[in-house]
Amino acid sequence: MGARSLLTALTLEEKASLCLGSDFWHTASVARLGIPAITMADGPHGLRRKPEEGEYARISGSLPATCFPTASALASSFDPGLARRIGAALGAEARAQGVHVVLGPGINIKRSPLCGRNFEYFSEDPLVAGVLAAALVQGLEAQGVGASVKHFAANNQETDRARISADVDERTLREIYLPAFERVITEASPWTVMCSYNKINGTYASQSSWLLTDVLRDEWGFDGLVVSDWGAVHDRVAALAAGLDLEMPPKLGVDDEAIVAAVRAGELDEDVLDQAVARVLQLVERATERGGVSEAFDVDAHHALARMAAAECAVLLKNENALLPLQPSAGETIAVIGELARTPRYQGAGSSQVTPTRLDVALDELRAAAPDGVEVAFAAGFGIGTTRGDEELAAEAMALAARASVAVVFLGLPAANESEGFDRAHIDLPANQAALLPRLAHANPRLVVVLANGSAVRLSDWERHAGAVLECWLSGQAAGGAVADLLFGAANPCGRLAETLPLRLQDAPSYLNFPGEAGHVRYGEGVFVGYRGYDALDREVSYPFGHGLSYTSFEYNDLCARVSGRVEDGDLAVEVTCRIANTGSRRGKEVVQLYVGDPEASVPRPPRELKAFAKVGLDPAVSATVTFRLDARDLSYWSTAAGDWVLEPGRFTLAVGASSRDLRLTTTIDVVAPPLRVELDDMATLQEWLAHPTGEALLREAVGTDDAGRPRGILGDDELRSVVGNFPIRALTAFPGSGLGPSTIDDLLRRLRDRCVD
Ligand code: BGC
Questions:
Q1: Mean pLDDT, rounded, for 328-352
Q2: 3-state secondary structure of 288
Q3: Where are the alpha helices (DSSP H) in 48-178?
Q4: Cα-to-centroid distance, 508 and ligand 1 (Å)
Q5: Among 42, 125, 160, 229, which one carries the catalytic annotation?
Q6: Looking at ligand 1, which atom is closest to the CA of residue 42?
Q7: Which residue's alpha carbon is at the smallest distance from atom 3 of ligand 1?
Q8: pLDDT band at 292; cut points 50, 70, 90
Q9: Nearest-5° Cα angle at 383, 377 to 384
Q10: What pTM did the predictor assign?
Q11: pLDDT tens digits for 74-104?
Q12: What is the pLDDT of residue 145?
């Protein structure tokens, strides 16, 4: 039976039941009409499929699945092709485990380094988050498995996440917090979107018709289903009316009855319910089209993919005197120090937590990969989960470092520091780890630090002791193997920072406005999130957004930008090309980044914003041309007054580089666009009237000139004009010298109207 006939055949009670799940992970079925239930499971970076029997709501105990790098790692690959492959692998695993919809990816912006779920999110930059997530969704859905893009929207902290109101101005929402969702919706058409727990400007996301209907459906054309985050519905009828289709987990016997009662009482239009049911039916149809459970997935192939991916995600922050890659000769000893080399930390805690199919241990992998005759010796150095320095462990580690040719120290955050459900209190490494480093450096100055953490940690207090620092993030079950590949040079680091590493937490633009109080968090930094803020405030950072080194080097040449089309015709385009050459001695990948700035803007704009990027793999002595295409939107800002994107005419700067602060080539373009015009009325200021060609002419006529031809009233009085030029012209009638009486203003407005009609 088609969706339309089903809608007619369903009773009101059955329709209401379809808008709630039947339990924690399934939609409802209607057996008499052959409507089956479908299955959902968590899984941005691996499936968390709970067995059908057992405790559904427990976090752990899911079926084994490949644990891929978490989103903060994957974003650092800057490689949508890789995200697509991981999405496809995730889809294959979902099919093998009978999962129809994977609850991910999570694409919220990293507003503060403290957000407890930053490891699950991609970036502080909406372009990076959107491009990577769209690719992952495409890969997943090409397997016939749905995605649930979450958490829509402005869920940027865990503190009070189920109640807090994210108080964000519209421009900031449009420029920072919504575009990643917009990109995924318009480029990848996900089957579902998951609304967030929080309120936005006082309204629960689950009850916001502005968010769920006006923006998501009417503006972006989303045709899929909106599901609630688990427990995010407070008023089922209001949520339905706002555009939320499916409530999870269901409040059975409560919210379905509320829906029925509201329809019967005429408080909810049955058409609204029908629309939600139609979307549920469409989801069921999409999910069941591919047939039953597919054959088992290829565990080895997926592990190999996870290893390759983890290597692509690692960011080489520092590499003095080419300390890496290690090239040990027979007879040498490599000291591997740190409990994390033996007890890997590879994912974060909470609903994204996967039971891995297997787990690489860095120490074992390094031993397996070391050349013959090279000893890889281990000392724990510190305990995990304790901040108390253990003198015995430290002494053992120092003795080992002293007799080795190089010391590789595995540092990172304890699992308890990074989790869904609460935010971090600081961004420091545990004290016992940071304290060990200078002592190890004293024993052996050839010190390499390998980091395992899901989001930014402070490096400024210890990194001077390390010659090289490799940021590996939480890179999944094969992270250990990838580290061996990177340290010995079988893989060349090519990850780039998708988030700024600040000198201190206090430098973060959101610092004074996080995590809010009394139920509100004010997004006071506005659009100046992440590097946009550090750059505008001219703050030094440890490592800037976009940074990452390689074992080879790259040169940038021949930047060229060409503008074509017209804003008025909707076809303005900017083609930007540059040449990248591998000037080193091994194959490597460069992430070429294109930043745009509008120094002449009439509103405060970030000095530069990432508008395109490309990852280019090159053999030594080989070069390639990279081409980017920008459109009007890429140069625009969101004008709250206009309720639209606005492109101002004038000069824009375009810079390509290897990071947001390593801009190798810069050029400018001149954009011709209609000048910004404010609507003139009696509340427009004198300055606004004077900036408007028609307004200015009429005003000059109205005040007239003296015998010598000089303007009269306020137009002839520079002093008065500089003091009250920003007053609405109606208010100027109170200033005797202005020459603007109430009748002059009325006349002015009449003549303006006539002129506009002409
Ligand atoms: C999380 C979601 C998750 C859901 C189901 C919620 O608490 O915020 O990301 O998909 O639980 O586990």
A1: 96
A2: helix
A3: 71-76, 80-96, 126-141, 170-172
A4: 27
A5: 229
A6: 10
A7: 351
A8: low
A9: 110
A10: 0.96
A11: 999 999 999 999 999 999 999 999 999 999 9
A12: 97
Distance 103 CA to ligand 1 centre (A): 8
> CA gyration radius for the chain?
29
- Whose tokens are 């449009």? That residue is 174
Which residues have C-beta atoms less than 6 Å from ligand 1?
42, 103, 150, 229-230, 351
Ligand 1 geometric centre to CA of 231 (Å)? 9
Residue whose CA lies nearest to ligand 1 atom number 7: 230
Q: Give the residue, by CA position, lying nearest to ligand 1 atom 9.
A: 351
* Span 503-507, average pLDDT: 98
Tokens representing 435 are 């304290």
pLDDT, one tens digit per residue, over 370-425 is: 999 999 999 999 998 776 868 999 999 999 999 999 999 999 999 999 999 999 99
Question: Exposure pattern of 703-723 as b/e (b: 16+ CB <10 Å)?
Answer: beeeeeeeebbbbbbeebbee
Phi, psi of 593 (to 5 degrees): -115, 135
Identify the CA nearest to 330 among candidates 387, 270, 370, 280: 370
Cα–ligand 1 centroid distance for 163 (angstroms): 15
- Summarize pLDDT for 607-640 with one digit per residue, the tens: 999 999 999 999 999 999 999 999 999 999 999 9
Question: How high does pLDDT run on average in the chain?
Answer: 96
Q: Cis link prior to 179 (omega < 30° from 0)?
A: no
Active site residue 229: yes
Atom of ligand 1 nearest to the CA of 151: 9
